[in-house]
Design a protein that fits this description.
Number of strands: 0
Helix content: over 70%
Largest sheet: none
Strand content: under 5%
Length: about 210
């Protein structure tokens, strides 16, 4: 066996082990399901955080995702893509939370929590000499975050999965249960709107 084959074999072993966990969980094995949750929780929280914009909602979403997953695990078919199914549940849960939050009287903590989180992380990464660069970086990130919030739900989810999570267009289409052409259109529109939003903000600052 050559060294070049080791990573591939290791990945195959992990894939086989995870497939076995899925099979056991589908048969009602709670310990196997707990292992699936441990392996998947970080990814679910990250995707939810990108879609919802703050940690509190993301962690609430993750709890609901795994409750739904456990409830419907027995329905999972082996020939299906488990990751696509998991992310589809995550997106649906996030949509439910997002719609509830957008109702009159619902909370919207996007800007305040995101600003606080990013400022806190930047303070630990930069020196005083880099304060101006850090401020500009924070402002740029916040501007993009706010631009994301203005997008229609479908465009926002598509661009989060494609550009922030790094899925291919085909993978995003599989997760969302739609066609790649539809995803490409949504992503193109989202990118244009984000650019227009950022350009408008920057022009406004330039006139001050």
């Amino acid at each position: 066996m050559t060294d070049s084959l080791v990573p591939s074999d290791a990945a195959e072993d992990r894939s086989t082990s995870f497939a076995l966990l899925i099979e056991q969980a589908c048969a009602g094995d709670r310990a196997a399901f707990d292992q699936i949750m441990i392996c998947s929780e970080r990814r679910v929280v990250r995707v939810a955080w990108h879609i919802l914009g703050n940690e509190a909602d993301a962690r609430d979403a993750a709890q609901e995702v795994f409750l739904r997953l456990y409830k419907h695990m027995h329905r999972f078919k082996r020939e299906r893509d488990f990751d696509a199914w998991l992310y589809r549940i995550t997106v649906n849960v996030c949509r439910d939370i997002w719609r509830k939050r957008r109702k009159p009287g619902g909370s919207d903590q996007w800007a305040s929590l995101e600003t606080e989180r990013e400022l806190g992380s930047l303070e630990t990464l930069v020196s005083a000499d880099d304060a101006e660069a850090a401020t500009l970086l924070t402002q740029k990130r916040l501007m993009v975050r706010r631009a994301l919030e203005t997008l229609p739900e479908k465009e926002r989810v598509a661009i989060v999965l494609r550009d922030l999570e790094g899925f291919s267009t085909e993978e995003v289409a599989s997760i969302l249960g739609t066609r790649p052409a539809t995803v490409r259109s949504q992503i193109s529109m989202a990118r244009q709107k984000i650019k227009l939003y950022c350009d408008r903000i920057l022009r406004g600052r330039g006139r001050r």
